[in-house]
Design goal:
Length: 248
């Protein structure tokens, strides 16, 4: 009789323990399910990204964006912070909608071809030496849009007028668009007063000879555009000693 009672008690205790374990497991599973569904912000490709594209440039030009993603769907090694692709480049072509993975972004030395200047078809990279004053006191940075004003004698008259307008800066000194924040967000190149630095521009192929001749035979100032999509300023023949202060 006693053994039967003892067996019943043991069975009840085991049932209670099993119930408690089941409750704990179910509660834990619920918490895990909720955690898996809780959205996590990751960086994804908003559009197709070509191999060699700088991470910061991709961000500044809208190629990538943050998107909420259930934690269970976040791929291992996903980019969750821009610092993870800072000064890094896409190692392969990335399709629109794809999660960015850290392993697909590499250092400059690993970019195919090793080219740091990204030159669009129909353009050539051309460097011009300019002192601090002529490059807007050193505030011109890789990715900016600028215009060039040329001063030189033409038909016996000294004249200043636009040479080229709304052209992209590829590099200032050794700081290139490929390793600086682009589209106006690049790192300023530190220069002392009177220091000369080379400014590398993306010049249309049919204008390269004109810019070289102007740099060799005239004086060039650079202006910095507030709007990268600004329309060219209409030319009125430029400024001369006869019209700069109006008719006398």
């Amino acid at each position: 009789m006693q053994s039967r009672v003892l067996a019943i008690v043991v069975a009840v205790v085991l049932a209670l323990v099993a119930t408690a374990v089941l409750v704990v497991y179910v509660n834990g599973a619920d918490r895990r399910a909720i955690a898996d569904q809780k959205p996590m912000l990751v960086w994804v490709a908003a559009q197709a990204i070509k191999a060699g594209t700088p991470g910061q440039s991709a961000r500044n030009t809208g190629m990538i964006k943050q998107a909420p993603m259930p934690r269970k769907n976040v791929v291992d090694g996903a980019v969750v912070s821009l610092t993870q692709i800072q000064n890094r480049y896409a190692a392969v072509d990335i399709v629109a909608g794809e999660q960015l993975l850290q392993k697909r972004w590499v250092g400059a030395e690993d970019v195919a071809g090793g080219r740091l200047l990204r030159i669009q078809p129909g353009y050539q990279a051309l460097a011009i030496e300019m002192d601090l004053t002529r490059q807007v006191a050193g505030f011109v940075t890789p990715g900016d849009k600028v215009s060039l004003i040329l001063s030189m004698k033409r038909n016996g008259i000294d004249r200043s007028e636009f040479l080229l307008q709304n052209i992209q800066v590829l590099a200032v000194g050794a700081t290139a668009l490929a390793n600086a924040a682009a589209q106006g967000g690049g790192s300023r190149v530190s220069q002392g007063k009177g220091q000369v630095a080379a400014v590398t521009l993306a010049v249309p192929e049919d204008k390269v000879e004109r810019v070289v001749y102007a740099a060799e035979n005239g004086s060039i100032y650079m202006t910095l555009l507030a709007d990268p999509d600004a329309k060219p300023v209409p030319s009125d023949g430029g400024a001369t000693a006869g019209n700069v202060v109006g008719a006398q």
